[in-house]
# Entry
Amino acid sequence: MATEGFAADGTMLKDSAQFDLAQEMADAEQKKPWAAGRYTKSLFKKSDFRIVMISMEKGAIIKEHHADGTLSVQVLKGAVRLTVEGKAYELKTGGVLTLGASIKHEVEALEDTAFLLTISWPDAAKLQAMEHRGYGT
# Structure
């Protein structure tokens, strides 16, 4: 069943949206305790683009994984360590890191943290043609 303004798969039907990130972070805090020390909310979803806010408690880890699209991580508060192909990058509030499609990475919260994950999603044909398909998430 679709919610007003959204398709059944969660894709937004409108072409624009505005968010109060301070309010989104406050709302996330109200949802504690979080499973596995993290909370995720999709703010904007289209077939080719996603914006996700992720809040993590200090010490929480998102194990190594990949995204099928080019992405950015922008820290809104706190600090995270992203480990990418064996190299660690520490990002604090205001820091941004970009990654190409299908690059494996891990995320660890060094402090209570909130960040925006933005993904440029490939179309279905490109997704099916990707060489990595099948090595996991």
Notes: The radius of gyration is 15 Å.
